[in-house]
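Chain A, query sequence.
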Amino acid sequence: METKLLPSETSVAPHTTWKLTTDPSVDTNQAPCNISGGLEMVSPIIQLTENGLWVHPIKVVWKFLEEVCDVGANDRCSTHVHLSLPETYSVIQMKRLAQAVIYFEGAVPLILPESRRSNHYARSNWKDNEYFKGDSRDQAMAKLEGCTTIEAVIEMMNPGKHKRYYGWNFTAFKSYGTVEFRRGAGSTNAQQVLQWITLSTTFLRASLRIATSEDFRHYPETVGGLYRFLSSVPRAQDNWKKLFDHKDFDQYQEPQKLGQLRPAEEAAFQRKFRHDSGPSLMLNAIAEYKKAQKKH
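Chain A, predicted structure.
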């Protein structure tokens, strides 16, 4: 029997449904459903609540996948999380998130899998950034503090031809009101998905609790400082804590600038760029959600 993925014909609003789509930029040794490349799963818009009810649909979907599929991932796979606020980001909120990203650039990679630490699709917002060339952490954070508009923060955090291909992608805010966390590894079960969701959302919430840029100094720049920073958020889902298992809390590693892509890597990057330049189910869902909100 030949199995194929068929386009959904449902009339349900796209931001309320789970979807599977192809991603030809992900190489695979298998070709399920006569598909060249990997599969990407796109969630509906999920509203985080303190009662944790938002977790249940994720577990249900993954339970179904595990029952009917063999789910796998390789080093080319990743988990991305788009983050928005109930209203919208203010300039101060955007600056604090950006500064938190820079401040903990020497700690966050140390809790990630090796494949996500030096990754051309999730570059360092500090060391791979032409605006911060040669800058110390304090100098980079001071430049961000000087930004007076959200647009200035976005341009400073995501400059050059790579734009979205940083660990944190601020460019989606312009059209969709979100900031995208891109450093998560590919997920093969619900627990891994929840780790990346709670890591990124708790990181955002912790950054918004920082009154001034000087307040970051209450936390060491180490893995342990990052843990304390995340733990400052009350009543947050703590799935992210598993990422710190067996980590050295005193460790800090200066992020390194990535070198030039080799020819094969450049070809793969261009394939990914072309694919990402096309229609996006995730971004379409976010756009539909924003439209629905405006109607109400």
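The CA atoms of residues 195 and 241 lie 8 Å apart. Residues 1-12 have pLDDT under 50 and may be disordered.
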